[in-house]
């Protein structure tokens, strides 16, 4: 029974009065396209078909009664998985099961120690997908690339090569109901080909696979302890591997090679940051928690990872729409109807158990496996929306407590229902109460009353709970309720939908909580703080929600941590490790990238710290600025070394040649530290030297985290061609989206070797002085920006420079000042300048303009061979020779700062702020006081930029024209 003192109170009031909201067009479209059959036209037609089909598992005399109960359950918010809605009660010989796991052996054909050979497994998988099921595989048994094949006196090609065959088969075989098959590929972390597997999708390969690395506790402990790990396999290595030191262990396994666990871990994290894969599965946690650990071992999952499954195992899924149980939404007394929720969950368990008896099975092994264990996976959807309706912020402790409580209600109701079914129909064939309730299993942690009833009556289903993704069923049956355990992606967004002719169409979609709030409160009522979307949450807030709910789920949770494209790698890189520490069974992430793009796109939203100014010349405004740090940050410049200094060099090979990269070191008594970077060679891309020069200044700051932020910003710079390059220390090939990203990766590696981020000093004076870590975003109406065109006839470069600008409040009564906050280029220019733009954009968001002034002044002298040209001096009617395109760009940016009254035309600040101590000889500061500026304060934009020009008041910042006289 529900507890009266629970976090989620039982229902005390009726649902809001008034007519229900009309369905969204997208819901009806998805329903008809994916689920409606024959002459079915509406949602109730589909529900009635499904209810009748599942009632066929009941006694003949009771079928009509159960069909009516099942129909009411469907109307009340239970949503069976897609295959059930699509195929139940139809003439299709299609499975009602969404996904399976297929074993794969090492033999080409036949049987390999109880596992089907590779091509036998391929045929079985093709039949499964043809009948509507997705398939997960563990490819770890397949011998690694280069292993010896004695029968053929040849060398093996490795599991990734065979995965490509499975990938093409999946692409070719159309599942029942025009549904393409989905696949999950898993490889253990200790397999010799694990590095090839991690990077297998870097170039968009294996498009019909999700991939996850199977991680062991031993490996994770090695990462934590910074130890080496052995890559092993039972297959004998070939001559090449043996020549490199491969040897057999006492346990019979062959050690192909060893490598630092952290080096492998970094590859996993960088690949998932750049390409959204691989995900991770924590194999030991999965198997220890397994109710059936006494009779099966799990090495893979279904394609969305909410169901860890044994060979031939299946996931019979369904979800309950939580939004249907919120009473008095958005009101102070908003509550969750636990009683109604529990009653629906019990009926849903019976319906899913019936699915196992009425489903068509693609393979007899799958039918045998399902009937001997009777796994089902009941979960929920709409958690994000339900929390909003309960006035709970998804990232709060209160929201996590509420989610935990309702999951406990689901757990107890589901297990109670399975006990009752076992009493009536008998327990699953392999049921053993003592072993199932043994220490460590999920069932051993159930409430004592449930465990006692399990011992007395048995359990109908070995597993009962899973939180699955609910993309299209949510759209069709739940008004686009937030997916599974996820928060809402956005309140309004555009969904990209592929048409039958292959073209994409964009459809506007709205979130149901947002729709209901607007319906109840009016279109102009501000949203509450509970309206938080996926990309507004930190990765750790996403992770914390899974950690709160996972102890109540006996299989697993499909959870993708969505982060924006500019999410810092520094905040991302420990995410999977924290998931392991939290006891999760797995995790996946998604960050938009050039290979995958995004199925959903949102209108650019305004962050909480930014808003649009009111004038017609719309400007981006920050609500507040940080206070300057108390201690000034000194910029020492390049140290003078009369006796020279050591440097590390690396030949960086790219599609158009190679060049030398140097990292200079300086030992100040506390150990060698990097302090400069430069490049040399005729085949270096134009503009890369300017990037290195700017990074050198960052390396001389007393802020190692700032350097890491800069390198993170460069890690995803996309250029014309991606390429593979030998990477230190052993020359392993690694793919990069361009030369800038490759250069940044090598610099990062060397900095790590020198211990830049392991120093005891955790001070972050530059980061602390930023007025915005991320680029401030405009609203849909946009804002004004400053642009300038540049043509360098010597190099053939013709481009447009654009500066995004923001109104930044100043301390006291000084009003606001316009400051550039980001740089962008368009036109014909060397793509290395995109990297320069990224890091200078970060420099622009340091509160003290002396910082960006220092960077720009250094670039004024940057020269390139045959790159000098004549051009007008900004703000003057004379020309001069500029040593490079970069130098002239720096001059243009300084000129804009001067127009805004922030820097003078030489790049020196007009007002000190105490963050960066300027050189004593700075001309612009010689006679200046903190309140001096280049003009009076403009009544239009508030900048100290109002001058007299041609007898009139004129604002150099916004163009305001005042009185003339």
UniProtKB/TrEMBL annotation:
Catalytic reaction list: a 2'-deoxyribonucleoside 5'-diphosphate + [thioredoxin]-disulfide + H2O = a ribonucleoside 5'-diphosphate + [thioredoxin]-dithiol
The cofactor(s) it depends on are: adenosylcob(III)alamin
According to the entry, every stretch annotated as the Ribonucleotide reductase large subunit C-terminal domain falls at 98-590
Q: Provide the E.C. number(s) assigned to this enzyme.
A: 1.17.4.1
**Domain Ribonucleotide reductase large subunit N-terminal, which positions?**
27-92
SUPFAM superfamilies tied to this protein: PFL-like glycyl radical enzymes (SSF51998)
State the InterPro entries in the record.
Answer: RdRp_reductase_class-2, RNR_lg_C, RNR_lsu_N, RNR_NrdJ/NrdZ
Can the keyword Lyase be found in this entry's annotation? no
Q: Report keywords, A-Z.
A: Cobalamin, Cobalt, Deoxyribonucleotide synthesis, Disulfide bond, DNA synthesis, Nucleotide-binding, Oxidoreductase
User: Per its UniProt entry, which superkingdom is the organism in?
Assistant: Bacteria
Coiled-coil annotated residue ranges, if any: none
What GO annotations for molecular function exist for this entry?
ribonucleoside-diphosphate reductase activity, thioredoxin disulfide as acceptor
Q: Which Pfam families match?
A: Ribonuc_red_lgC, Ribonuc_red_lgN
The main enzyme category here is oxidoreductase
Provide the function of this protein.
Catalyzes the reduction of ribonucleotides to deoxyribonucleotides. May function to provide a pool of deoxyribonucleotide precursors for DNA repair during oxygen limitation and/or for immediate growth after restoration of oxygen.
Q: Which family does the record assign?
A: Belongs to the ribonucleoside diphosphate reductase class-2 family.
This protein is called Vitamin B12-dependent ribonucleotide reductase
Biological classification of the source: Bacteria, Pseudomonadati, Pseudomonadota, Betaproteobacteria, Burkholderiales
